[in-house]
Amino acid sequence: MRRWSWIAAALLGAALAACAPRLDAEADRTARDFFRAVQAKDWRAVDGALSSRFLATADYRQAIAAAADAAPDSPPRQVKAVGWSPGRLDQGEAVAVLHLYRYAGADLVVRTAVKRQGERSTVEGLAVTRLAPGTLRANTFTFAGKTARHLGFLASALLSPLVMLAAAVLAATSRDLRLKPLWVALALVGVGRAWFNWTTGQGGFSPAEIGLISAGFGRESEIAPWILKFSAPIGALITLAWLGLRPRRTAA
């Protein structure tokens, strides 16, 4: 079982990495340098990196000091960018960078909003969160300690798109099927959206959603829980039922 969990985790990680946007190197460097200055309480460097809007905040020094106090005094053993999201902020390019700082006795998640205008990058915001012990290990994709509910949802998430594709292929290759393109499209329609948190085992279902091959997995960052999603293959079941009834209708 452990062997298959490693294989599944590798496949999921590779697929997620292929779809993830690339982090801007300048934003990454700006965020790292800024938090280094925060930890050292180097106010000259901190003020020089902050945007004018942040500097205009009345209590920005207290907020920065609180962020510095949240970090241990020792240097981090590892600093890694684990998530980012590009966007725009006040007519300038912006990116929210998520870094994981690992210390001997604590793990911190530092979110830095970096704004880039021309050749200069400034910091628009900072948030520091201390992770609970065992959070990183709990959020890895593994089958260890998982229940039948976990495995059942995973099987459903894998089978749903397979049923859709199989029904679409059967409709496309069926002879004398009228309105064939419409039946192929219908076979790919999923109704509702079921989701499942692989870490906590919690899930839910939203019936008011319709999509094509609505199944997949992902997580907000490398330290967040994996979320599995899929839609009920209602269109595929209707298509398969119609294809099954066609010979009888033709014979009749």
Fill in the keyword field for this structure.
four-stranded antiparallel sheet, single chain, 252 residues, elongated, 29% strand, alpha+beta, 8 strands, 44% helix, disordered N terminus
Structure description:
It is a single chain. With 252 residues, the protein is α+β, with helices and mostly antiparallel strands. The chain has nine helices and eight strands. It has helices at 2-19, 25-40, 43-49, 52-55, 60-70, 135-138, 148-173, 180-187, 234-251; strands at 78-89, 92-102, 107-117, 120-130, 189-197, 203-212, 215-218, 227-232. A four-stranded antiparallel sheet has the order 1-2-3-4. Helix 7 (148-173) packs antiparallel against helix 8 (180-187), helix 7 (148-173) packs across helix 9 (234-251) and helix 8 runs antiparallel to helix 9. The longest helix is centred in the middle third of the chain and has 26 residues, at 148-173. The chain is elongated and about 80 Å long. The termini are far apart. The relative contact order is 0.12. Mean pLDDT is 83; it is low at 1-12 and 15-20.
Secondary structure blueprint with pairings:
Blueprint: H1 2-19, H2 25-40, H3 43-49, H4 52-55, H5 60-70, E1 78-89, E2 92-102, E3 107-117, E4 120-130, H6 135-138, H7 148-173, H8 180-187, E5 189-197, E6 203-212, E7 215-218, E8 227-232, H9 234-251
Antiparallel strand pairs: 1-2, 2-3, 3-4, 5-6, 5-8, 7-8
